[in-house]
Amino acid sequence: MHEYSLVEGIVESVKDELQKRQIAPEDVESVYLRVGVLALHSVESFEQAFHMQVQDSPLKNAALKVEVSPGKFECACGYTKPLNLGEIDPHDPVLECPQCHQIGRASGGMGLEAFEIEVSTDK
Ligand SMILES: [Zn+2]
After folding, report:
1. Where are the domains of the chain?
2. Distance from the CA of 83 to the center of ligand 1, in angstroms?
3. Is the domain 2-119 a CATH 3.30.2320.80 member?
4. Which helix (H) or strand (E) holds 12?
5. Mind listing the pLDDT tens digit of every residue in the chain (123 residues)?
6. How far is the CA of 113 from the centre of ligand 1 (A)?
7. CA–centroid distance, residue 102 to ligand 1 (Å)
8. How far, in Å, is the centroid of ligand 1 from the Cα of 89?
């Protein structure tokens, strides 16, 4: 699964952050993640991978919010186009420019770009 190794790294980052901020993992209400479009196939499979990773940990009850940040195709001729989920194959992020027909690569959106942790306060 493509998402699996990415998610593994993300879960580690989240745990590190919790430790740094001295937050107990069971107090985490939700985890918000912004992930680049080239890092995942679909939000569903990404969420599935996340839940698989945390199912045996205190983070298992945390809700996951995923936002996908678009990538960008930029051609030497000046043509640019934002790339959303489904518009680019993460394994082969190559596109033909519709303007000059050169082959170019998509940029941006390769991995985790930001995350936030929301902690439950009603304790
Ligand atoms: Zn072009």
Report:
1. 2-119
2. 15
3. yes
4. helix 2-20
5. 467 888 999 999 999 999 999 999 999 999 999 999 988 888 998 999 999 999 999 999 999 999 999 999 999 999 999 999 988 888 888 999 999 999 988 887 778 899 999 998 765
6. 28
7. 6
8. 19
